[in-house]
Design a protein that fits this description.
Keywords: GTP-binding, Magnesium, Metal-binding, Nucleotide-binding
Organism: Danaus chrysippus
Number of helices: 5
GO biological process, one term: system development
Bound molecules: guanosine-5'-triphosphate, magnesium ion
Strand content: 15-25%
GO molecular function: GTP binding; GTPase activity; metal ion binding
Pfam families: Arf
């Protein structure tokens, strides 16, 4: 029988089209992802189970639930028991970054997610027309979050297309201790 102690409950949220499904498919099935598939918005939720062996050699599973951006008004139904939150922001969508910031602050202030560890993923870092990292961080007020919040998110730049950041994401998710957030220098 499935032992809940062996599962880490992860919630993956972010505006629609920010790249959640693509990222999670890549984490779940690093070799076999089909890039010819036609991406469809997630209406409802997807669950991605990612098995791994922990530092003590015990089999565990990252149970990652994506809730589509279209479902944002219903995200709050999925906060119970969540240990980690992956919040995905599309750096190639200038119009969306500010609204993503508001969504992120709302999640960080949510009492049910007080104990959850947040990972802020700047996605689509391969796109030529993306925002530069520091501009995106300014728009997200990331430095301020790090200075003012005890549960400020760990930052990760990623692209499932080029594999950037993927090797770091899994350890972030399986790490039980709080990862120290390096406050980036913004010019
Ligand atoms: N260039 C680039 N495109 C990406 C990347 N990740 C996702 N995309 C594209 O962005 C679009 C949306 O990706 P999804 O993964 O479906 O986005 P989502 O966050 O799951 O969207 P919802 O389910 O609607 O909330 C698709 O056309 C993807 O191919 C990336 O790293 N780089
Ligand atoms: Mg999706």
């Amino acid at each position: 029988m499935d032992d809940p102690d062996n599962r880490i409950s992860v919630l993956c949220l972010g505006p629609k089209g920010s790249g959640k499904t693509t990222l999670l498919k890549k984490i779940q099935n690093a070799e076999g992802i089909d890039y010819t598939y036609s991406p469809v918005p997630t209406i409802g939720t997807n669950i991605y189970d990612v098995p791994y062996i922990n530092k003590q050699g015990k089999k565990q599973v990252l149970s990652i639930r994506e809730v589509g951006g279209e479902m944002a008004p219903l995200w709050s139904n999925y906060y119970e028991g969540v240990e980690k939150v992956i919040f995905v922001v599309d750096t190639s969508n200038l119009c969306q970054i500010s609204s993503a910031a508001v969504m992120l602050y709302t999640l960080l202030a949510e009492p049910k997610l007080k104990k959850a560890k947040f990972i802020l993923v700047l996605s689509k870092m391969d796109a030529a027309y993306r925002q530069m990292r520091n501009e995106a961080l300014l728009m997200l007020q990331y430095t301020r979050l790090c200075n003012e919040l005890p549960n400020a998110p760990v930052l990760l730049e990623a692209s499932p297309l080029t594999d950037e950041g993927l090797d770091i994401l899994k350890p972030y998710l399986t790490e039980t201790k709080r990862v120290t957030v390096p406050v980036p220098a913004l010019k």
